[in-house]
Amino acid sequence: MSQSRLSSLAETCISIAIGFVVSLILTAYVLPAYGHAVTLGQNLQITGIFTVASIVRGYLVRRAFNRWARA
User: Fold this and answer.
1) pTM reported for the whole predicted model
2) Distance, CA of 61 to CA of 68 (rounded, Å)
């Protein structure tokens, strides 16, 4: 059974939101542990950049697999 577009959208949004929060928390602890103190604003920017990169990567990988499945 295939997933509806609305279900796919909901799954993607929830996954991104969870990943964003996890990354925000990890960045707050990991960077200072390596000597890079960051403010909350900097943490949000860093996490946002990596989140956008993750969305693009996920989209490209999914499209590639869809293309390979048709070949």
Assistant:
1) 0.76
2) 10
Domain total in the chain: 1
End-to-end CA distance of the chain: 21
Place of tokens 């295939």: 2
Q: How far apart are CA 67 and CA 24, in angstroms?
A: 33
Buried b (16+ CB within 10 A) or exposed e, 11-49: eeeeeeeebbeebbeebeeeeeeeeeebeeeebeebbee
User: 6-62, pLDDT tens digit by residue?
Assistant: 888 888 889 999 999 999 999 999 999 999 999 999 999 999 999 999 888 988 888
Measured CA to CA, the distance from residue 46 to residue 24 in angstroms comes to: 9
Residue range of the domain that includes 30 = 5-70
